[in-house]
Fold this sequence. Notes:
Layout lengths: L1 H47 L1 H19 L3 H54 L4 H26 L3 H21 L6
Helix pairs in contact: 1-2, 1-3, 2-3, 3-4, 3-5, 4-5
Amino acid sequence: MRIPALILALGASALLAVGCARNEEPAKQAVASAETALNQVRPEAAKVVPEQLQAADDKLAALKIGLAKEHYKEVLAEAKKFNAEVVTLHDTVVAKQTQLAAATHEWEDLNEEVPKMVQAIESQVGNLKGSKRDAAKAELDSMKSLWAEANAAFDAGDPTVAADKGRLVQAKAKQVTQQLGMSPV
C-alpha cells in the first residue's frame, strides 16, 4: 500500500512542478513587460506625480518579490492589474502636464496685465487724501504682497498656485479700480 501512495504523491508533485513551470516564463515576461511600461512613463511621472510613481515602484517591487518566491499565478494576476495602473498613471501624467501648461499660459497673461493694473492703482492712490487714501493704500499693499507670493510660486515651478494667486490679485485690482472710480486698465 505504501508504494502506490508514494507514486501518487510523486505524481502529484510532478504535476505541480510542471504547472508551476508553465507559469514561470509567462510570469517573468509579465513582470518584464510591466517594468518596461513603467520605465516609459517614469521620467515625466517623476516630475509631475512623484508620489504616484513611488506607489507604482512599490507595486513593481512586490511583483518581483512574488516572482522570486515562485508565486507565478499571483504574479500573473497582479501584473495585469499593475499594467492597468500604469496606463492610469500615464493618463494622470498627461492630465497634469496639460494643467501645468494651461496654468503657465494663464500666468503669462496675468503677468502682463496685473502689474499694469497695480501700477495704475498706485498712481491713483498718491492723489487720494485721508481715510480713503489709507484704505486704498492697505488694499494696494495687500495686492503687492499677494503678487509677490504669486511670483515666488511661479519661480518655484508651481504655475498653478501662481495663476491662482494672480487671479486673486487681478480680481482685487478690478474691485479697487471700481471703488476708486478709475477706468479699467
